[in-house]
Design goal:
The protein has 291 residues and is of the alpha/beta class. It has 12 helices and 10 strands. It is 36% helix and 13% strand. It has a 7-stranded parallel β-sheet, sandwiched between helices. Strands 1-2-3 form a 3-stranded parallel β-sheet. The longest helix has 19 residues. The mean pLDDT is 95. It binds nicotinamide-adenine-dinucleotide (NAD). The site of nicotinamide-adenine-dinucleotide (NAD) has 31 residues, from α4 and α6.
Length: 291
Amino acid sequence: SYENLIKELIDVSAIVLRTYELPQKILKKCKSLKIVSRHGVGYDNVDLNYLNNEKIALAITGSANAVTVAEHVISMFLNLSKLSKKSDWLVRNGKFKERKAVQNTLELYQKKIFIIGFGRVGKALAKRCYSFETKIYVYDPYIESKLIKNNNCFPISFEEGIKIADFISIHLPLNKETKYLITKKELLQMKKTCILINTARGGIIKEDDLIWALQNKVIHSAGLDVFEQEPPDENSPLLTIDNLILSPHNAALTLECKQRMGIEACNNIVNYLNNDPDLILSNIVNKDILN
Ligand code: NAD
């Protein structure tokens, strides 16, 4: 309960935070707090302004989960393009001979992949896409296009990228600029065969518009690990649409990654409190403010 939480938090120096919300109302009660260490890389569930004002550090597990999320995207690319759910259903339901009647399955080979956001996960995904001999396009206005080219990818505008892509994957923070980046208007620009994946944050794609697009076959299919509301409402049409694959925000929750994130989140705290901030500098989100 909120009351118990406040009692426990009142004199702690550090908090390891998973997905719980830490608004100002709670943070204000933590009189000795020096660091919040996120178990993951997103931090939209903690009031960063408050931490900045109070000079409390915010750390993330920057190096732990990029590869894991990238593998999850590849798994969604393959599951959707190979119609794995449908194929499994056919065999289990005595419809083996109907295999030719189902829609054609697709390949990744020589396809155009569009990665939106080229940070840790975006780069890890690009590496994995090479092995499928794909052509990789990237949109990220906050990095130099040289960095994109050095990673053997092609810089492209957002508007052009959504038009030419066979596969799109989103790897951005959720903020005012990225909220509803993809709505009906953008979905209508995509190829009818396009496969769209969001493992970043719910709300970057407008869910109602995606539901409409999938129901009307405006695009081929989609994969979501993140939702506008988590968990989604039990009556949400998302739960009944065929050309959609869902996972419960567990893209980073492999056994190996959980171990890496747990260790990194705790090491962040130990190093920070031991005055060894250099050891975790790249993991401290608000290092400029603390300086
Ligand atoms: P990152 O900070 O390393 O990279 C984000 C990139 O997005 C940066 O390169 C930045 O320049 C770019 N960017 C920011 N705004 C943009 C915009 N408007 N248009 C284009 N590019 C923009 O982050 P990351 O570690 O790669 O994580 C990416 C997202 O994935 C985050 O939202 C994170 O919370 C989420 N994530 C989800 C899971 C999961 O379990 N599903 C796990 C890890 C990360």
